[in-house]
Design brief:
- There is one protein chain.
- The protein is an alpha+beta fold and about 300 residues long.
- It has 2 domains: about 5-180, Formiminotransferase-cyclodeaminase, Chain B, domain 1 (2-Layer Sandwich); about 185-270, Formiminotransferase, C-terminal subdomain (Alpha-Beta Plaits, 2-Layer Sandwich).
- It has helices at about 20-30, 55-75, 100-120, 140, 145-155, 195-205, 245-255, 270-285, 295-300, and strands at about 5-10, 10, 35-40, 45-55, 90-100, 125-130, 175-180, 185-190, 215-225, 230-235, 260-265.
- The strands form 2 sheets. Strands 1, 2, 3, 4, 5, 6 and 7 form a 7-stranded mixed β-sheet that branches. A 4-stranded antiparallel β-sheet has the order 9-10-8-11.
- A hairpin with a 4-residue loop joins strand 3 (about 35-40) and strand 4 (about 45-55).
- Helix 1 packs antiparallel against helix 2 (about 55-75).
- The radius of gyration is 20 Å and the shape is globular.
- The two termini are about 15 Å apart.
Length: about 300
């Protein structure tokens, strides 16, 4: 179908060297049809998160070129950072936006994974809706042990072989995890304590895998340079668990240690409905609708609202 639009949020394992970051995002600026909406680098995580929107073909072409640059500059054998990773280009998720279905994004993921390995030499794992094995739908399962463990197990353990590329990983760039998924919100809550165990305990209480809030993934990290710790999360379905609910649960648990929330961070982009939902909660608005926001109504008038 014509005029298909997808979102893609590739994550690269580089958040400190500005010259490398600028080189990686170059193809996203230069490729016709690929719209670079946002990119953010975090030194503590040592990670670059890029947000793209455009037709599938343009985005895939730009991804190949950016991946080749990342391979030339990132060596996971020396890479250090707070965020879990298995590859120089760690994840590439495709998200359906307009005139395209999730099933079509799955097909794009599979075809792109084959092309990606052929042109870069990096093996590929498929996750979320594109997973070819049920146990690989969850990103954290593929990332278990991170690059340091996976580089051995991917070569020796058949159960951990990549989906594309045979056994083993790329010698310096590791593997890339490609998939299709719903819109995800990367959301961080920073705490006024240096005690990492507090953040890790709260993350365990909040995340769904430990019996916390459904559709929430989370880990505790140290922000050493800022003298804080962080509960770093992915909200994989913001319609079923709102930002305010996550914040208030963390606030409640932090009170047990006399710890306060310093600030929260939205990493990358976010649907307006997710912000308005929490604004309505904190302002105690009754029967509030997005149509009451002037800019949202203007989008209707010019025919841009999806």
């Amino acid at each position: 179908m014509a005029n298909q639009l997808i979102q893609c949020v590739p994550n690269f394992s580089e958040g400190r060297r500005s010259e490398v970051i600028e080189s990686i995002i170059g193809p996203f600026k230069e490729t016709k049809g690929c719209n670079l909406l946002d990119y953010r680098a975090d030194g503590d995580h040592n990670r670059l998160v890029v947000t793209l929107i455009g037709p599938p073909g343009s985005i895939q072409d730009a991804l190949i070129q950016a991946a080749k640059i990342a391979i030339d500059h990132i060596d996971l054998n020396t890479h250090q950072g707070g965020h879990p990773r298995v590859g120089a280009v760690d994840i590439i998720p495709f998200v359906p936006l307009k005139n395209i279905t999730m099933d079509e994004c799955v097909a794009i993921s599979h075809a792109f994974g084959e092309r990606y390995h052929k042109e870069t030499g990096i093996p590929v794992y498929f996750y979320e809706a594109a997973a070819k094995r049920p146990d690989r739908a969850r990103l954290e399962v593929i990332r278990r042990g991170q690059y340091e463990l996976l580089k051995t197990e991917a070569a020796e353990n058949q159960d951990r072989h990549p989906d594309v590329g045979g056994s083993g990983l790329h010698a310096t760039a590791g593997a890339t995890i490609v998939g299709a998924r719903k819109f995800l919100i990367a959301f961080n809550v920073n705490l006024d304590t240096k005690d990492l165990k507090v953040a890790q305990t709260i993350a365990r209480l909040v995340r769904s895998s430990s019996g916390g809030l459904c559709h929430v993934k989370g880990i505790g990290l140290s922000l050493e340079e800022r003298g804080m710790t962080q509960v770093s999360m992915n909200l994989v379905d913001y319609e079923k668990n709102s930002l305010y609910r996550v914040v208030e649960m963390i606030r409640m648990e932090a009170n047990r240690w006399g710890v306060n929330i310093v600030e929260t961070e939205i990493y990358g982009m976010i649907p307006v409905e997710a912000i308005l939902d929490s604004a309505a909660y904190y302002l105690q608005l009754s029967d509030f609708s997005a149509k009451q926001v002037v800019e949202m109504s203007l989008l209707d008038l010019v025919g841009l609202e999806e």
